[in-house]
Amino acid sequence: MLVIAAALALSGCSTPSPSPASDYCVPRVAVTPAEVRPGDTIEVEVESGCDAPMPPGGWVVTAAPVGELDRAVRTTVEEDLADGLAVSIELPDTFPLGEAWAGLLEWDYGDCADNASCASPSGSFRVVRAP
Predict the structure, then answer these.
(1) What's the chain's average pLDDT?
(2) How far apart are CA 89 and CA 73, in angstroms?
(3) Quick check: helix, strand or coil at residue 83?
């Protein structure tokens, strides 16, 4: 039990609801399936519980190869984050093979304490060659 509590304490700000000491919260993001091919569609699910204000123009949900934001696929969603949201993103046939991530772009870290290690609202997936 102590190991689990320590692991949760080290997980940074990635909690589904604010702690009593702070209103800062970063939603967990799940990407399914975990392994895809170029041209496939992924589902990006943002967990409910963080009542962050929607930025002007909506949430930008992004999928990108690790280290290559210039090759990102983006879509905008105007939904209340407190209820969670799910977005389908079709990867182009030219999407690079390898590790990739998807999540909310332009997340506001302004309320994250200066001494905190705040997580990014993103999840990972892998793009593999078609058989």
Answers:
(1) 81
(2) 8
(3) helix
Partners of residue 126 on adjacent β-strands: 35, 99
Domain boundaries, the chain: 2-127
CATH topology of domain 2-127: Immunoglobulin-like (2.60.40)
Residue 54 has pLDDT above 70, yes or no: yes
Q: What is the mean pLDDT of residues 3-15?
A: 37
Q: Report CA 36 to chain centroid distance, whole Å.
A: 17
Pairing of strands 59-65, 98-105: antiparallel
Percent of the chain with pLDDT strictly greater than 70: 75
Stated pTM of the model? 0.75
SS3 37: coil
Counting Cα atoms < 13 Å in the Cβ hemisphere of 96 gives 14
**Cβ pair 68, 11 in contact under 8 A:** no
